[in-house]
TrEMBL record:
Higher taxonomy: Eukaryota, Metazoa, Ecdysozoa, Arthropoda, Hexapoda
GO CC, alphabetical: plasma membrane
Membrane topology reported for the UniProt record: Multi-pass membrane protein
Major location (coarse): membrane
Compartments where found: Membrane
ABC transporter domain: residues covered: 23-261
Keywords: ATP-binding, Membrane, Nucleotide-binding, Transmembrane, Transmembrane helix, Transport
Keyword Membrane: yes
Annotated GO MF terms: ABC-type transporter activity; ATP binding; ATP hydrolysis activity
Record carries keyword RNA-binding: no
Family statement drawn from the similarity comment of this UniProt entry: Belongs to the ABC transporter superfamily. ABCG family. Eye pigment precursor importer (TC 3.A.1.204) subfamily.
Entry's transmembrane regions: 361-381, 393-413, 433-461, 473-495, 502-521, 587-609
Protein name (database record): ABC transporter domain-containing protein
Amino acid sequence: MAMEMQSRDSSLRCLPKRPAVDIEFHDVTYTVPQGRKGSKVILRSINGQFRSGQLTAILGPSGAGKSTLLNIIAGYKCQGATGQIIVNGESRNLKQFRKMSRYIMQNDLVQPMLSVEEAMMVAADLKLGINVPKSDKKKAIDEILKLLRLEKASTTSTNKLSGGERKRLSVALELLNNPPVLLLDEPTTGLDDMSCSQCISLLKTIAEEGRTVICSIHTPSAKLFSMFDSVYIISEGQCVYQGYGPEVVGYLSDLDIECPRHYNPADFIIEVCCKEYGDYHDRMVSAIDNGRNCYSSNAAALTMEPPIVPVDLKGSISSIKEEVYADLSSSSFEHESNWTTQFWILISRMWLQMWRDRSYLLLRVVLHVIIGVIIGTLYFGMGQDGSRTLFNFGFYFCCLIFFMYIPMMPVLLQFPTEVQLVKREHFNKWYRLSAYFTALSFSTIPVQIVLGSIYVLFVYFLTNQPLELDRLFMFFLICILTAIISESLGLLVAAQLTVVNAMFIGPVISVPFMLLAVYGFGSGYDTIPPLIKIAMYFSYLRYSLEGLIHAMLTDRQKLDCPETEEYCIYTDLNFFVKEMGMEHTKFWMDVAVLCFIIVLFKGGSYYLLRQRLRPNKTFIALQYIGRLVKSHLGLAR
Ligand SMILES: Nc1ncnc2c1ncn2[C@@H]1O[C@H](COP(=O)(O)OP(=O)(O)OP(=O)(O)O)[C@@H](O)[C@H]1O
């Protein structure tokens, strides 16, 4: 209790002041297509209001539409929704509203490998900008951590936080620029009773400071239920109650539904919604006029009709509006840090996370050493052996396959999860997506260079390749460019898919690239049909192979044929290059094409990622067609 009081004393003085925001919604309907079955209506002409300075709970049976309503109010889902959302008496400007509201989704993902304090400092740098002195940011962070009782965990790694601490950290991160509206989807799920009540008490403190705090919640205890300033109950996509929680008993009693003594009113109304005592759904919806009214027991004497107070949807709000609306339309919610700052903060965070994950880094180093030694041993000394030119060619191709798969697999495994985090951070306006994507693209280059060098040094010398610095450099350059392309291809695949699908599609999609790179090998380039010759130039590995062959085999003296061999067919390397159809290739042209492919794949991945986070009309139409096709073919789950 003492702790509760202590946290309530805090008023987040360090944070920028924000205006109060009241939200109303009218006739909100949300429909999703259901293939041949037509469409499914999830929210049905629902109305309601959420006030500033209040903690509001959205309750209802599972599948009632709580998360859907939160998604629509937050602006996270708009496609398929109709109706009106009013913010401080004016129709909601979604762009503006997204800047002033923060949505904490159910999956409380936080950036791994950082301490709580570091995660907060990164968020503070991004949200408050670099012009705010570090000491002020530190003060704000300390205040928030104290408010959310995370001071003791400030040095704990985010990977090691308990469920409750992780949820509180998700809230803390979003409090940094003091958003006036906070929406939380089931913040208490997975917490024990004590942590639940602590979490709700903290949210109440946050609301008391003038913010509009709305959270969806599953069957709270009677104690929790009474802590909310306002409760909004949904059943079957319609509002069945809006008002103060404990008054639900009186409301139901007015509808001739008696809540047993000592029974949790929250449990009882959910059971009523689930029709355990008969079908009262329509009566409740019409009593509250589907959320247009708000229940208050003080408003009228008990009559046959429930004492519902019509909500003055303009009245109280308009008084606030005059004071604050100017603030709302100002640019005070813009990104405080510019693109370059965001880029540097994000790339530093990525490097720090890579460095902290040292066991993984070490594993990758060891893997490059082991595979380098194995491949080097398999092709030992073949680089200048006239009888082994074909084996040597196999070695070059083997190196390219290594640099095609090894950098792609971690991306396919990690990026789909990372997208969920980016979705949350980007939706809550931490940074521009372009800044994030550029940081992501550059952050991995140093690691690729170091790991690539380890591998190249082992194989180059073990296989006895020519000891010429320019050839070594060209070999290395082609390997690194191939690695970067493969990584970009991984991003392209993983940007729209789940881990399972990405892990399947990524390797499968690489097979045609491999085949096209060496198609017709052995039978002579001239025997390849013209169409396949054209197709070969759609494989990036073909350019890598051309580059490697050019770097390693052109302008070299005839190789010696060992005495143990009777005849060596490819001692003349120029003849071999001609047989491969690569005699006219230019190394720097191949490098230029590889660089172009990197830009192409990166651009494609960025576009797909952007569409994943905020699809445009074409993409929405494509998704819709995809869903229709899937449901018509019976593939929709
Ligand atoms: N894209 C969709 N396609 C089909 N049905 C959907 C879609 N999105 C939501 N639904 C359905 O809409 C209903 C409401 O979903 P919602 O997630 O809002 O429920 P909820 O009240 O938050 O449930 P819970 O408490 O279990 O999380 C559910 O029956 C769900 O299956």
